Amino acid sequence: MTLPPLPAQPAGTPWPTAQWSAGPALSAAISDTLDDAFTPDALSRLGRTDVVLIVQGGRIVYERYGEGLTADSTFPSWSKAKSITQALAGILVGDGKLDIHAPADVPEWRQTPDDPRAQITTDQLLRMSSGLKFVEDYVPGHVSDVIEMLYGAGKENTAAYAAALPLEHPPGAVMSYASGTTNIVARALSRALGTDAAGFEAFMRERLFKPLGMASPLPKFDAAGTFIGSSFCYCSAGDFARFGLLYLRDGVWEGERLLPEGWVDYARTRTSSKDDPAAPYGAHWWLGVAGPGSFSANGYDGQYTVVAPDLDLVLVRHGATPLDLKDNLKAWVGEVVEQLRREA
Q1: What stretch of H or E contains 305?
Q2: Looking only at Cα atoms, what is the longest distance across the chain?
Q3: What CATH number corresponds to the domain at position 60?
Q4: 276 has a pLDDT exceeding 80
Q5: Is the pTM here over 0.70, yes or no?
Q6: 239 and 337 belong to one structural domain
């Protein structure tokens, strides 16, 4: 499948490193659709919406916050942090410190001769096709490795918890979404740098956040010093939009290549044609939520950073959407972008 081209920053449009500039207002019809998400009537359909921010052509064309929230408010990433972890991996690939097609650096898998997990590559971890048995369930009372990892027995050392799990499928055979794999990757990135939590956070800020002008990020680390890249990097809506714009601009910012050439295409290339057609996945990015060619960082409870290259668009939404309404919200996000597409 041919990927749609990633547009360059329009001539004369300033990069939002210091501040965002405003673009032309959206049509009344689209604005009404967006405004409706903040009404009391929308709670039963979409849950609570805290912010919607839309960037088109490198400028903000819509920005609205819920009651008591502002552009300075920070929002939980949940699994949007996975896409940030993917960016950090890309930086190390560009530095020559990480080979994603080599077996991942996981000490637990080298303790026993012929452990089949020792053949799992970082690429397979990023594509959620490691084969590890991991239950990704957010319903209290259900068996759940993700809850146990984040809040139970695994919370002190999230990567070790995930790395201890057995194989359920041969590596590379099945795509199965598993937050534990991201924390394995995050620890491997820290090991590649040879640093501790403080050093890794400094790396995040110096190589990714600072160049984009992202001043708000609050990444969380476990007691073992691993960035909990599966779930925890709070940011403002504007900073999540900056991150999305980096991917829309093919990893280039103000003329400087921050992510290696081809890394964004790697993120948005489908893992396997055999995977669930209703939820196609790339490399730590979801695909297609806003139509063909779109890709997105999605998080629990209805957090989204959606990139639509054909519209030169980034859409950020945060809020609290119950699990039984998540399909409604996903459809709403897709419809908003489709409305913009029809008017383009």
Answers
A1: strand 303-308
A2: 65
A3: 3.40.710.10
A4: no
A5: yes
A6: yes
